[in-house]
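User: Structure tokens for both sequences below?

Assistant:
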Amino acid sequence: MPKISKTLVEGLKRSKDRVKGSNQIVWDSELRGFGVSLGSQGTKSFVVQYRTPEGRTRRKVIGRFGLMTAEEARRYAKAFLGDVAKGTDPLAEAESQSNYTINEICDWYLERAAAGKIIGRSRRPIKSSTLAMDRSRIEAHIRPLLGDRVIERLRLGDIEAAQAEIAAGATAKPRKGSRGGVTTGGEGVASRSMSTLHAILEHAVRLGEIEKNPARGIRRLASSPKMRWLSQAEIRSLGTALREAEAEFEHPKGIAVIRLSLLTGFRRLEALSLERSWLLEEEHAIHFATTKTGAQRRVIGESAQKLLLDQPNDGSKYFFPADWGDGHFIGVVRVLDRICARAELENVTPHVLRHTFASVAGGLGYSELTIAALLGHASRGITQRYIHIDEPLRAAATAVSGHIAELLNEGD
């Protein structure tokens, strides 16, 4: 038996006495079980053959010559046969994987990610906040439409059809009782749900749980960007509504978080989960251990810092502790809805407050680079990576937050 090489495979020709329709196999002289098969139409494919622990002979096609080199096939076969030597049956395992459902692979992902065993795009374990969002999309949208489907039989068209159903509201649900969120549809929700599914399947392929990702190549729906922010007149109206609500004993933590979001441009969870130890008073900055774009030191203006220092300290590590338990306050959306209804402002979310901070900063003449630093956006180039907290940046944060604070106090 010769050693299988590029030269040998290129020179292979079928024996004239070979039975028509059968394959001719040449076995490697060095790696037992590794060979090349010559088909009746002249196609050449690398194969690996082995015996199961029960003594059954099994054969697998590794790949076709031309799409795979002889050395690549040899490395694959060596690893494959190494698994066999450990007493496993790789083909039987692959066959069991072929019956994996979306529900099962989602369960696998949630369990592994919760244990810190799946590495995300940041080359770190999946964050708890990301996992919570993934879990929400799985339960609300992915399981109801695709949960029982066998992954091996799923096609790209099936997944894009599910995306269209989510966008049309097929998985939308009203709020149950007085607590909990509303499950909505729409193009943005559909696109993000499919991104989550695609990522889960990619992790499963990379870690050897499944052979292929049927969502690979999906065309995700493009959602219309939300360009809503508050005008100066609307900020004044909001300020009036905040004072009126405060006088009528609206939740003080909700009011404070709304003000802080406007004065800093913080994301909703960044504001809600602020810990007292993160405030660096001398630097007028917050040191976030983790954010959407990694650990950050974010500068804040004097008005924002004063608001934080004015918060009652009941011994919690958070500036805005929960009303019960050890967590942080979470009810800002409800408070914001009630206050905006009072002010007759529509379509205002915590993210609109973040947009408003950026809009005011732009109106005051600050550059996109400065505004990006104030908002904690991910670095887009070498220059931005070297932005650090200096006096001009502190001055910008103080000017923007001070201007917004004045507008909030001007109403009526």
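Moving on to the next sequence.
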Amino acid sequence: MMRGKKLEKRSGNGVFSLTLIKALGLGSWVRFLSSRSSGAGATSNRLKLTAAKGAVRTEAKSGHGVKEQAWMQDRNLDNAIWEALPEELLERVLAYLPLTDIARLATVCKRWQSLIHCPQFLQTHAENSSSWPSYGPVRYSVNLSENGKFHWSGYCKSANKWQKLPPLSLPCLAGKKVWSGAGGLLCFYNRDNVGRLTVCNPVTNRWRELPPMNQKWRWPCVTHMIVDQSRKSYKIILAGNEAYPRNSITYRSQSTEVYDSVLDTWQLSGCLPKDLYLDTQDAALHNGLLYCTAQKTRTQTSDSLSAYDALIAYDVQGGVWTEVSSQLPDSSAYQTPILCGDHLVIVVAPLDNDGAEGRFYLLDARTKNWSLLTIMPQSLHKKLGFWGVCVAYGSQILVVSDTSMLVVVYDMGEGTWQELSSHQADSNFEFITPTIFSPNVNAIP
């Protein structure tokens, strides 16, 4: 719970602890909100509170410098007082709970289970968007025998540690894996067959199964979700050269398809140039352009082809692919585009921990040339082992080990490397994804 305080509710007599209210320094809210109330209902509430308190009027200073009535200092608060607590106060207090406690909140009673859908609860979180931190990258497990039970955890940058997140129990998620995510939403797909996608808000447990796609995708090379917070809408972009099995007569190598949540439809979009082939599932969105890496082929002679790496971009609004840079820094290793601050960075991951250290290159937006930004220190390179994923938080780049879940960070502003976490891998979590989950009760699947 908040500040290490335990939230208690006892069955039978309904006794509830005021520890949470004290911990948040919200004792004065009881008096403030009661005084704000008007009408017969408010008068009734005040009378109930007065009767429950009895004749005790002793006041004491709390640890937060707030004067408290003696009745507020009693952990075993009388049931009549708790029942008389103004609804607005209850919703505001519970809205400040950490995300990891929301799952337990819903098991207390039906009233609290429905609380996260209440307007006041949603408004409180909209006004205090920083009350819940972001988690990413995300690691998870898929268990077919648990009827959609989804166990997961995320790296909390503000706390510098991995944290288990409330498990999801939705039948629609049985056997599915995380594909992408943004704005508090996660996109899932069936691990055996891409088929139809499911979008879910893990906080509210609301979900939507998307309509069938126009193409029977075998395996898209790029999958990316874009959320428009102002419109409470999102798009999902699929692109690549695996739309159909290669032995199929309907095989297509230039496919792009976009889902729009407002229209609730999939639409075919601009095709990739015929000599470009996407070679990554990672992409970075910047100023309306989705940047990806690709291979470009060209004919040397009548019977031979050569290929080189290139940076390309998809105009989300215009639906057109263009080539940004005809040369990437290092074609000998896996390359990932990420957005760090307002800069596009190519991460060159080592092929193994015995090879060269990871390198990071910065793109000059004007000249389209690359310059070396930093090289991972040898000590961290050896300790990290095989890379799992690489994500960016503002001006910081986090690299996560695939085996030990070690997390190291490069601060672009300071120009420094640091080890953040050496948390050992939990065998219960099979997969890791570069998705950053930012809890949002207002996100609509």
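User: Anything stand out in the second?

Assistant: Residues 1-64 have pLDDT under 50 and may be disordered.
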